[in-house]
Amino acid sequence: MSRPTQLRRSSRTPTHTKKEETQGAHGLAARVLLKTSISPRAHRVAFLEEQTTRLAKRNMMVTWPWRALPLAAVLLLFLSPAASVDTVTMEAPLAGNRTIVSAGGTFMLGFFTPDAAPAGRRYLGIWYSNILARTVVWVANRRSPVVGGSPTLKINGNGSLAIVDGQGRVVWASPVMSASVLRAGSATAQLLDNGNFVLRLASAGVAWQSFDYPTDTLLPGMKLGIDFRTGLDRYMNSWRAADDPSPGEYSFRIDPSGSPEFFLYRWSTRTYGSGPWNGYQFSGVPNLRTNTLLSYQYVSTVDEAYYRYEVDDSTTILTRFVMNSSGQIQRLMWIDTTRSWSVFSSYPMDECEAYRACGAYGVCNVEQSPMCGCAEGFEPRYLKAWALRDGSGGCIRRTALNCTAGDGFAVTRNMKLPESANATVDMALGLEECRLSCLRNCACRAYASANVTSADAKGCFMWTADLLDMRQFDNGGQDLFVRLAASDLPTNSVSDNSQTAKLVEIIVPSVVALLLLLAGPVICVIKAKKNRKAIPSALNNGQVTPFGQRNHTASALNNWEITPFWQRNHVAASNDAQDSNSMRPAGQGNHQDLDLPSFVIETILYATNNFSADNKLGQGGFGPVYMVMGDLTTDKI
Asked: Which of 8, 416, 495, 503 has its CA 20 to 30 A from that of 384?
């Protein structure tokens, strides 16, 4: 180890000008920093103390150390190897308490011991470098901590990363590279500012990365899903406890069967399902949607199926998904003002999130009591259990389907779509084409849109087995069309003749309105003609001629009443419901209710001199008009 550089004493007397003292100070600082960049930290500190003491004796403390020492201290900090390096190489492994920091200063990688964990257990992990309370986002050797001794991370000659203990035993290693990859050149491992630790070969690119092996945390840019080409399954797995990063009870992973969907498992038992992706969000997680800060993406191809999210480049927010040890999937956001993590969302969030809570064809709704109900056209399978609020037995159809007898579809709004393991997806079909395809397939039980990004977007889900794990939201979710027998179809159903029904809905009201419009004048004309013929008809029916020829007896005439012609229209209008004539048999009319005067035919004959031609005043559209002798209303004739 080299000895500290000694300052050479000047042969000049100590009567310097202020300018000379300043220049000398900067020169001294430069020489100090040059030396410290290659000397151990302890030696640097001792050297600075020595120089400060000497300068103090020469009364130079007032002129420059108060400026130079803070600068030197800051530069010493940044020249520290732990703070300026983000890579591990074959020649420079990571040992002991040494750490590396990403270029932007966001993440740090090194060995750590969890709080409250047994002493001596060391893990290689990644955590946020600028958060005082260590927040670990990835652990390499979670199954095999280094116990005792000083651990080291190095790059082996076979192109793999390895953690060795103090005795040189390998406790963890990344996959070994192929010979062709190794020939590509030397390897380096680098910690990126997104938290990804990557192993690179000189000309072969990334050979391994920590993002492919999540632990309990999903960072922006990480993929959660399966690479079908390599069989790589990226999933989240909780810590066993807060002080134990070994694999815990809960995992969150994708099921690639049918339409891929994410499930939460406790060991091997499903406890929660996300619902299938609908082009915008998972149908069972309506609050998880793209906004100005976060964007979500789900990719499903023949090569891979995965979900990931990104943070807008213009923001510096810190966010992460965590699968905690109690079985909650939480989105956490870092709040600078409180210097703490805030829970932005958490799943499962209520009783209806329980996997298959209401059984086949059962629909869960936490706003109802009991929370389990049956889909339209179904009824509880086990009534006694249902009465005890156990809906896990599900529901059965009221009426069996008949594929050739008018089956249709009942729509239910705001739904988490059924479990997708038995669903098929056709992204070439629109919603109406989806309906027709489901209708033609007698095994099809329901359909829904697989792409709700726009009204005319294409994408079709079809289920060919029992509908499971459904719930209904107050807001969010989407429409689900469930197949029913014709007799069970509600008014909002979509049947085989839906197109015809739509035409009927348009045509029938139009025709009815037109008929009513035309019928009005016709009815008026008919009534007018009826009223016009009322008195002559009465005369003819009563065997009375308008010209005085009486061939009936007075006793017969006494059984008839005639309404005066000047009140005829009023009477006809008042008796439309009875379709009465102006003349009707006495005692059978409702003249008292009409409040109109009526006269016996005998009086009329007498007053008009038996309808004498001498009394006839004329004839119009309503028939002949006669002058009467006297006042009919007072019987004074």
From this structure: 416
